Write the structure tokens for this entry.
Amino acid sequence: MISWGIGSKLPLKYMNQETHNSKIVNKPWGYEYLVYETNDVALWALFIADQHSTSVHCHAKKTTGLIVLDGKCEVSFMSDSRIMNPLDKVMIRKGLFHSTKSISENGSIIFEIETPKDKFDLVRFKDNYGREGKPYEDHTHQKNKEEDCLWIDGQDKEYNFANCTLKVHNINSVDFFKNLDSKEKIIFLNGGILSNDNQFVASAGDIIENKSILELIKVFPKVSSDTKILLIEK
């Protein structure tokens, strides 16, 4: 397996579970594995080899967010495409067909977060590897994770991964964001920013630049008590 950098070692309890927690899923374009999950969200690390691409697919029930950690990608939709460099991000609504292609000699590493978590919510439209209309890969495409695979346990902690620094923070005040650079990239892992009537205006699964958060908290100066975020720095 290609080394992605040093993270925390995967706890033994996850190595013994016959679930996605303990598996690497092999893909014709590379591979992916789960690095964090709650009842609501799942965060996956994807490696896409140079000039390889995911299928053109959509998710009927979930929203996904992508952020490039290392390498360079082209994310395409039905009518346009965009080039994404490290720390570029995109949120993809339900039902939006898209594909991601690596255009880096050493491949690309991406985080994908899904809300709600459901890896089998997948509709493949076109595919370079003959998987049109086929479901998500079954157990025959899986292998056990290696001990150096990244696992984020949700505690306040720092990880080095894919030439990035990842920092988990459990926060209880919007003042935390005021002390960050406006260009910081933030993934909400749990909780979020609340409106005056306690509706989420930024919530688990969102990938947001702090510049936008700083604008939001001028009007909505409250976070839920269970808010957990992941900062990603290059």
In short: The longest strand covers residues 30-37. Residues 210-219 form the longest helix (10 residues). The radius of gyration is 17 Å. Confidence is low (pLDDT under 50) at residues 1-18.
